[in-house]
Amino acid sequence: MKVCIGGTFNPFHKGHKTLIKKALEIAGKNGLVFIGITSDEMIKIKKGTRSLEERKQSMEKYLIEEKIIEKVKIKPINDRFGPSIKEDFDAIVVSPETITTARELNKERKKLGKKPLKIIQVPFVMAEDGKPISSTRIRNKEINENGKLIRWD
């Protein structure tokens, strides 16, 4: 099975790792997971934003540590759908935050005569305070990449 996920991954955190693990599970032993990383041009680098290369390196470090790098293909994307709009994928793995985009993607695929992707929604991964782990919360120094609260005692 050919599965895709996409995002900015800025910074790469536990929630992203969960998406990748689920995508690999769906893809199966002989499947492939395409990971689209938002290009620098698309996100218009601003303070606190890591470059595409830095974001890609963080992800690759994790993939190498987990011995799963050979099961994924990482490419920059320059629009919200990336290659998932035209290429032959079977499924897309999303968070509650990106489910709407996946539904829009399927509408666009249908217009192009493509089969819709199976949408697999993975629940948010919670930080230790019971709120979702998010890149914004990490950049705001509320939590770290694993959801641990940063205390300012």
Written account of the structure:
The chain has 153 residues and is α/β, with parallel strands linked by helices. The chain has a single domain, classed as 3-Layer(aba) Sandwich (Rossmann fold), CATH 3.40.50. Helices cover 33% and strands 18% of the residues. The protein has 5 helices and 5 strands, in the order βαβααββαβα. The protein has helices at residues 14-27, 40-43, 52-65, 99-111, 135-139; strands at residues 2-7, 32-38, 72-77, 91-94, 118-121. It has a 5-stranded parallel β-sheet, sandwiched between helices. Strand 4, helix 4 and strand 5 form a beta-alpha-beta unit. The longest helix has 14 residues, at 14-27. It is globular and about 55 Å long. The mean pLDDT is 94.
List the helices and strands and how they pair.
Layout: E1 2-7, H1 14-27, E2 32-38, H2 40-43, H3 52-65, E3 72-77, E4 91-94, H4 99-111, E5 118-121, H5 135-139
Parallel strand pairs: 1-2, 1-4, 2-3, 4-5
Number of helices: 5
Q: What can be said about the biggest beta sheet? A: 5 strands, parallel
Overall CATH class:
Alpha Beta
For the largest sheet, list the strands in their spatial order. Answer: 3-2-1-4-5
Secondary-structure arrangement, i.e. CATH architecture = 3-Layer(aba) Sandwich
| Radius of gyration over all CA atoms, rounded | 16 Å
CATH topology: Rossmann fold
The chain-level mean pLDDT equals: 94
Note poorly predicted spans: none
Can you identify the CATH superfamily?
HUPs
Structural class: alpha/beta
- How helix-rich are the residues, as a percent range? 25-40%
Structural domain tally: 1
Percent strand equals 15-25%
Report the principal-axis shape: globular
* Spatial gap, N to C terminus: 49 Å
Strand count: 5
Give the ordered list of helices and strands: EHEHHEEHEH
